[in-house]
Amino acid sequence: MPTPRPASSGGAGAGAGAAAAQPADRAAQPADRAAALAEGTRAGDRRSLARLLTAVENRTAMAEHAMRRLYPLAGHAHLIGITGAPGAGKSTLAAALIAELRRAGRSVAVVAVDPSSPITGGALLGDRVRMQAYAGDDGVFIRSMASRGHAGGLAATSTAAAAVLDAAGFDVVLLETVGTGQSEVEVAAAADTTVVLEAPEMGDEVQAIKAGLLEVADIVVVNKGDRPGAQRTASQLRAMLTPMAGRGADGSSRPAPKRPDVLITTAATGEGVPELLAALDRHRSDGPVVHEARVARAEAQVAEVLAERMRARLAERAGADVAREVYDLVARHELDPYAAADRLLAQVDQDRSPA
Ligand SMILES: Nc1nc2c(ncn2[C@@H]2O[C@H](COP(=O)(O)OP(=O)(O)OP(=O)(O)O)[C@@H](O)[C@H]2O)c(=O)[nH]1
Ligand SMILES: [Mg+2]
Fold it and tell me: Which residue, of 86, 179, 259, 276, has the greatest Cβ tally within 10 A?
């Protein structure tokens, strides 16, 4: 449970004190603001949490400062990804899971990630409706995040947001994708346990999407169990998953992934949701499996920061013109991308050594 504490400053924002605090707050250095927001977040202040998530979404310098403070506090929440076909019932299932978790006295934060659109309008509307059911419940927090054009960075943004909510003390963080798109897989990469949702009778066309998505599934859920064909879809999926589990990854010596459970739910009524929660808890209790997922995530996170740092250093040391020249050469096929990367790396190294 997060331990909500009334905000000591800026709570109502109407008093003279709050008004006086505003300009100083704005003038403060990112590190100072980050410290204040991190402390507020840790203490359960929702406004600090909301601001911090906005900073994470916009990838500001302040977000990095705050992350450095909060990261050591995170690592306790169960990060659950919910992804799958559009309209399969992801949002409805997330709502049913929230209800089930609250019954069990567990707190939950939901991040609805929209990979397809930089505008959160539609998602926000849905979240407001969901939020209303939990107004005044400090154990539930719901937030939409847009991709903001960072196509490749969606996993990094989701991971960072999840870490903030984790540090805020939520027992469970649900990462829910909106609509469809290949970046669903990226969102899944930010979770400890990934649930892939299907609905019955979705036709052959969807099978192709399924194949890609099924690879990231720890648990497969056939939702709309009240519809005809749910049992048949579940059987088909079980059949599809069996040979997949036995297939070694390109002949590598890595152990074959565990075969995911296939469950049936009716999110609209909550049927099958307690069983889903039990399966989620079972998956989470498999320490080595979750640790491997976290190591993969750590690698992706660090690689992302490395690439960003490298770009920044390149701009700062070699100058944007040098990089632009190299990109021009690659565009004209006078230089291949690998040689280009080597050239730029050498530039960064060269500039660094005399310093
Ligand atoms: N019959 C039936 N309908 C359901 C069930 N769960 C969800 N629905 C309905 O299916 C529709 C889509 O549900 P959502 O929860 O919005 O699906 P989603 O996967 O979040 O959709 P996108 O975010 O747009 O991809 C809604 O009309 C729901 O009421 C269920 O268990 N049974
Ligand atoms: Mg949805």
Answer: 276
Whether residue 140 is predicted with pLDDT greater than 80 in this model: the reply is yes
Q: Are 318 and 341 in contact (CB under 8 A)?
A: no
* Rounded Cα gap, residues 63 and 31, in angstroms: 9
Instruction: Count Cα atoms within 13 angstroms, Cβ side, for 217.
Output: 30
Atom number, ligand 1, closest to the C-alpha of residue 271:
31
Handedness of CA 201, 205, 207, 209 (dihedral sign): negative
Pocket probe for ligand 1: among 91, 144, 187, 275, the residue whose CB has the most ligand atoms within 8 Å is: 91
Q: List the strands of the sheet with 108-114, edge to edge.
A: 140-146, 108-114, 172-177, 78-84, 193-198, 219-222, 261-264
Q: pLDDT, tens digit, for every residue of 54-109?
A: 999 888 889 999 999 999 999 999 999 998 888 889 989 999 999 999 999 999 99
What is the structure's pLDDT at 8? 36
Give, in degrees to the nearest 5, the angle at Cα 341 between 340 and 345: 120
- pLDDT score at 139: 95
Question: In the CATH hierarchy, which fold is given to the domain comprising 74-248+255-285?
Answer: Rossmann fold (3.40.50)
Write the pLDDT tens digit of every residue in 188-239: 778 999 999 988 865 554 554 566 778 888 999 999 999 988 999 898 888 8
* Residue 355 pLDDT level (bands cut at 50, 70, 90): very low
Residue with tokens 């990804």: 81
Q: How many CB atoms lie within 10 A of CB 115?
A: 22
Spacing, Cα 68 to ligand 2 middle (Å): 32
Tokens representing residue 36 in the block? 């204040």
The single residue listed with the structure tokens 């209303």 is: 132
Using DSSP, state whether 143 is helix, strand or coil.
strand
pTM score, whole prediction: 0.82
- Per-residue model confidence (pLDDT) at position 115: 59
> 34 is written with which tokens?
């980050």
